[in-house]
């Protein structure tokens, strides 16, 4: 009998369409899964507020805040401090051509409080805490600890996800405030100490440029970024399959998906704030 010919590979346009369609399916599946998880967390939070028999463990929340937030302060301060130095040095040449070196304070303040503060803090926390959360919950899934909780009638979302989401959201908001102050101070040190701008002028320009909207928009972004970060990490951790290799894939996916989601959310918030005049 003649040998069967191997199956022909689809032509390149068909393969590209297949990959593009699969990418969109995975994207919609991720959005739906994360949205459902956030809805489930919201239900548990409401039940914890209005039903006495349902309590959200304060000890678990504080423990996660220490692990996620307190231990991230050093790296956030380091990165945001470097950002302040970089902004001051990069703005000096173009502003000096117009005799506006003192306006470095205005640019650093607006850039940090509106955009770079929450964005840098979210990216740092993604690598520091997001991957850790996904790996931790994924390891529990592989070790059948989630099934053990369910066998004892303990909801894993209530006992594992809710404390992590609360802790990450609050921690990222507070870390953003620390990062904002660090970047402005480091930018001031560079501008005053090495670029020759008087301290009083730098201080006056910073205070005159910044308004309450700059601070509020940064905090809103930080809170939403924290929610997105923790929800994606918990979602990927809960759906781990395939043992240790699955945990590694969940960790990698968490970092990539969170960075993309945070950037897209930042773009959407910037457009919204621009449309309502908060810019």
Q: Can you walk me through this structure?
A:
82% of the residues lie in helices and 0% in strands. The protein is mostly helical and 279 residues long. It has one domain. α2 runs parallel beside α6. It is globular and about 70 Å long.
Uncertain segments are none
- The residue fraction in helices comes out at over 70%
Number of helices: 9
How many domains is the backbone divided into? 1
Quote the average pLDDT: 88
Summarize this entry quickly.
The protein is an all-alpha fold and 279 residues long. Helix content is 82%, strand content 0%.
Key structural traits:
single chain, 279 residues, mainly alpha, 9 helices
Any chance you could write out the topology, listing elements then pairs?
Blueprint: H1 12-50, H2 58-68, H3 73-96, H4 104-142, H5 145-151, H6 156-193, H7 199-209, H8 212-238, H9 243-275
Helix pairs in contact: 1-6, 1-8, 2-6, 3-4, 3-6, 4-6, 4-7, 4-8, 4-9, 6-8, 8-9
